[in-house]
Fold this protein.
Amino acid sequence: MPIDMKEQGKIWMNGKLVPFKNAKIHVLTHALHYSTAVFEGIRCYNTPKGSVIFRLREHIDRFFKSATMYSMKIPYSKARNF
């Protein structure tokens, strides 16, 4: 049974919000077919003391290490003042 995907709202693509229906990628996108991309899922939880990100330093370290493996340069520093 097909999933009903509604093309509503906006989604982040290439540094800006675009209408969901316009978010397209090229069929030959290497990252899609061969997983040559960098991704790190960072979770944030509500706690009695406010929002808390689980193991942020470890996530940032893994993200930068993965980017290095693909010779990707991240235009941000790995600031440790969080």
Q: What stands out?
A: The beta strands are 10-13, 16-19, 44-47, 50-53.
